[in-house]
Amino acid sequence: MSIPKIHLTMPLALGALAVWLALSMGGRWLESAGYALPGAAVTGRIGLAWALAALFALALLLASSERREAGLCAPQPWKTVWLVSPPLLYALLMLVLAWAGGWPQPRVLLIVACNAALVAVSEELMFRAILLKGMLDRYPVWPAVLISSALFGLAHTANGLASGDVSGALWQAVAATLQGVGYAAIRLRTRSIWPMVLVHGLWDYALVTATLPHPAEDGASILPYIALLAVLPLCLYGVYLLRPSQRAAMSQLQR
Asked: CB 3.0–4.6 Å: which of 54, 165, 190, 196 could bond 75 by disulfide?
């Protein structure tokens, strides 16, 4: 007897988000490292809670009948991969700027790389695969993109609130929301989450290493301010990718 497949509806996606938040944030607090990725890097721990959250999201996608529609596949067609070039160049530029004043310790770089990869996979599976597909089951493309991006930004407020930095939490919420629009647009145009997993991971890796003290300097890098300026063009790029002439191609994702 075949096992019935799960349909990724909006209520299911919101319920999955609640579980994902409990696994990621709750697990991070239990590890005494905080929700924020920089905390895990500084304390020298790999965030296993992110792995649990990613495994949960992956299991839900594999149990669904719409894993390909949710982006759990290779880019379709492959030529759409070039659409990832602008945010990829942003991330590479950030990495160069982050290391311009000196390299962090190799052990720190390795820990940050592991955490950045875990965060990228976990968040893309949750927000650009499950949540975006669930919203598309109920709404047209733009409302689905905006709602999923706003929830992505709201989830990032925990980064600042965990440390008591309210202004930092608001900055992260705005920046993540703007990023989410660009990320969702590329996910829809490529029909795959994997290009954005690469960009997301590299972006976080550059941002976190930029905030760590470098051997050649005592202060923190100015990269977070550069990243703030970068997210607005990324959002506008997403708006361009989802311009009216491209929306017809997105309609099949709602079937």
From this structure: 190
Query: CB within 8 A of 18, min separation 6: which ones?
Result: none
Whole-angstrom distance, CA of residue 52 vs CA of residue 65: 22
Q: Per-residue pLDDT for 168 more than 80?
A: no
Per-residue model confidence as pLDDT tens digits over 51-94? 999 999 999 999 998 999 999 999 988 889 999 988 888 788 87
Overall average pLDDT of the 219-231 stretch: 55
Bond before 195 cis per omega within 30 degrees: no
Tell me which long-range contacts 17-26 makes (C-beta under 8 A, separation of at least 24).
Answer: 17/126, 17/130, 17/131, 17/151, 19/56, 20/53, 20/56, 20/57, 20/122, 20/126, 21/155, 23/49, 23/52, 23/53, 23/56, 24/49, 24/50, 24/52, 24/53, 24/122, 25/49, 25/158
Tell me the pLDDT tens digit for each residue of 131-140: 999 999 999 9
Residue 108, CA atoms < 13 Å, CB-side half-sphere = 18
Inform me whether the pLDDT recorded for 240 exceeds 70: yes
Q: What is the DSSP letter of 34?
A: -
Distance of CA 73 to the CA centre of its chain: 17
Is the model more confident about 27 or about 131?
131
Give Cβ neighbours of residue 102 (< 8 Å, ≥ 6 apart): 214, 215, 216, 217
Q: Considering only CA atoms, which of 103, 120, 100, 5 is closest in space to residue 61?
A: 5
Helices then strands, each counted (H, E), the chain: 13, 0
Per DSSP, the three-state class of 179 is helix
